[in-house]
Design a protein that fits this description.
Elements (H helix, E strand, L loop, with lengths): L1 H19 L1 H9 L8 H8 L5 E4 L4 E4 L13 H6 L5 E12 L2 E12 L3 E12 L12 E2 L6 E9 L8 E5 L3 E3 L1 E7 L11 E8 L3 H13 L3 E2 L10 E5 L2 E6 L9 H39 L1
Parallel strand pairs: 12-13
Antiparallel strand pairs: 1-2, 3-4, 4-5, 5-6, 5-10, 7-8, 7-9, 7-11, 11-14, 13-14
Helix pairs in contact: 2-3
């Protein structure tokens, strides 16, 4: 019974993750021309579909976070565990720390979202302080409005593998619990997504909170810089309550490719076995019918 419950939970989470990016697919499939003023883009620029809108100035899709339905589901490590099996291939870093009686989680993502989009995200989550470790059983709520942080991200892409990272999009610097940006296209290498680079600034509530965040950031493998100019990869700089960062290579995401290959092989073998049995049954029925015709 427990095994069935776990499988149903995993399936539900997979469907939830897949559904969360449905508006981007909707916009892609319904556009009638490569022009940015087509009906689908115009509609998404003025209206959110399942929480997503379109930015025509930079040609990217983003979450209308204040009104998004995804806000009800919070964050848990299980989402990231299930994601690769619904074609969400991303790198991520989970920065969790305690401040003023709350456990905080600031999570970073970048990678391939389904077959048609790549992008990056930053999310802010909280829960009552318990001191427990960040495990698969730990659940955070999306930050309440009074706990939103000012965030701005810039995504760069090494499109051809020559080491030149071209600026793809820049999100507005504003208070939010979820800053997102998704571009149409496909990465050359999905896992890990090192051809994407995310830079940005996060303004914490106070310099003291910024220091608590910085200590947790260092625990995730990011290095503290002495200056905000020309930050090294996977490093950050603190200026009062502002944390400026540059992220490219660090990731907590496990290499799931061997698991997916093994799973795919098992599925293929099972399909082969089933097809063989079906053909055997059909062959037997045909032989029996032929024998009956000969006897009669």
């Amino acid at each position: 019974m427990k095994r069935i419950t776990k499988r149903l939970t995993a399936l539900a989470l997979a469907l939830l993750l897949a559904l969360s990016y449905a508006p981007c697919v909707f916009a892609y499939l319904t556009e009638n021309s490569p022009q940015l003023d087509d009906p689908a883009h115009k509609f998404l620029e003025d209206n959110a579909v399942l929480g997503y809108k379109y930015n025509s100035d930079q040609d990217y899709y983003y979450c209308d976070s204040p009104n998004s339905w995804q806000k009800q589901f919070g964050s848990t490590r299980i989402y990231d565990l299930v994601a690769p099996y619904v074609l969400l291939e991303y790198d991520y870093a989970r920065v969790h720390f305690e401040y003023e009686g709350l456990d905080w989680l600031v999570q970073f993502w970048k990678g391939q979202y389904g077959l048609m989009f790549y992008g990056s995200e930053v999310g802010v989550y909280t829960k009552e302080h318990t001191g427990e470790e960040d495990s698969y059983a730990t659940h955070y709520n999306c930050a309440d409005e009074e706990d939103w942080l000012k965030i701005q991200t810039v995504m760069y892409h090494d499109e051809v593998g020559d080491g030149y990272y071209k600026k793809c999009l820049e999100t507005p610097y504003e208070e939010t619990w979820w800053s997102t940006g998704f571009k149409r296209g496909h990465l050359r290498v999905e896992e890990p997504a090192k051809e994407l680079r995310q830079e940005g600034v996060i303004t914490l509530k106070s310099p003291e909170m910024a220091q608590a965040f910085a200590a947790a950031f260092e625990d995730c493998g990011f290095k503290r810089a002495e200056s905000g100019e020309n930050l090294d990869l996977d490093s950050f700089f603190i200026d009062g309550a502002d944390v400026h960062y540059r992220w490219q290579n660090n990731s907590e995401a496990e290499n799931t490719m061997p698991i997916k290959v093994a799973t795919g092989t098992m599925i293929f073998m099972n399909i082969g076995i089933v097809m063989t049995l079906i053909l055997a049954v059909l062959g037997g029925m045909f032989a029996m019918g032929l024998l009956a015709l000969i006897i009669l």
